[in-house]
């Protein structure tokens, strides 16, 4: 039988090696943390990518917000992916006005959210009249069977 002092360094080395094999996300992905919001601009033909990590199963709500007083806003659309690239959900008008809202029960893991302007811009002038401001909220609640 091996002594205890052999197992501790062995377990430490294995624990250190596991993250080295995990696929890293690109640096330009924006990290979301639970119960926070992101405020920024969504330019035509631009794609914003966000990611978040859940340590355990959670009910998640991802929702965009634009001014409801104006009609010339961006129309944020979103696709939620597993870290392996498989699609979980997509939405472009489930929220208020022309905003997306994705509400899902997710297991522990890493997830990616891709957001882009669903309206697009066909103008050579870059659509300067479109209000590009939007907010993304990220809410979580512990999953419960009751």
Q: How would you explain this protein's 3D organization?
A:
By secondary structure, the chain is mainly beta. It has one domain (29-142): Jelly Rolls (Sandwich). The chain is 12% helix and 42% strand. The protein is built from one helix and nine strands. Strands 1-3-8-5-6 form a five-stranded mixed β-sheet, with no helix packed on it. Strand 5 (76-82) and strand 6 form a beta hairpin. The longest helix has 18 residues, at 4-21. The protein is globular and about 45 Å long. Mean pLDDT is 82; it is low at 10-22.
Structure described in brief:
The chain has one helix at 4-21; strands at residues 30-31, 36-41, 47-54, 58-65, 76-82, 87-91, 101-106, 109-117, 133-142. By secondary structure, it is mostly beta strands.
